[in-house]
Specification:
Elements (H helix, E strand, L loop, with lengths): L12 H18 L6 E2 L1 H16 L8 H6 L2 H4 L6 E11 L5 H10 L1 H7 L5 E8 L10 E11 L2
Parallel strand pairs: 1-3
Antiparallel strand pairs: 2-4, 3-4
Amino acid sequence: MSDFDLPITLQSPKRHRRAIAQLVNEERAKHGLAPLRFTMSLRVSARAWAIYQTRNSRFGHGNWSRRALRFPFVLAGRPRSRAVGENLAAATGSFTTPREIVKTWMRSQGHRDNILRNWQYAAVWSSPDAPDPGRQRDGVTVVHHFGRTIR
């Protein structure tokens, strides 16, 4: 069985997020889009938001406009020179596999639009445990951040 089909409890979070990134890039390739390149600055924001959600039993985008302005990816560019986006997932059990997460995103118009938008960069963070700390040990919270430079 590949990492694409293993639940979070049977693989490391690192392998889990790599599999999600690979599946997202495969979806983009099906639509003639370039693969997303990893950037550490988006990994920092994705990790921070995943940890915040699991520690605080929250799930959602929060005050997106305000949060996005503080992303390291955004702060590293000139004012208004970078755009960012976000996909979230929370699942338990067999729905925590990278394939199930990406399949669910592709069935949702907003998430699908994000995956197929003209982004250049991305980073995924998978946190074992869904946003109800300690009560969903077979769960996962996934944050996928996207970015692009605006000319």
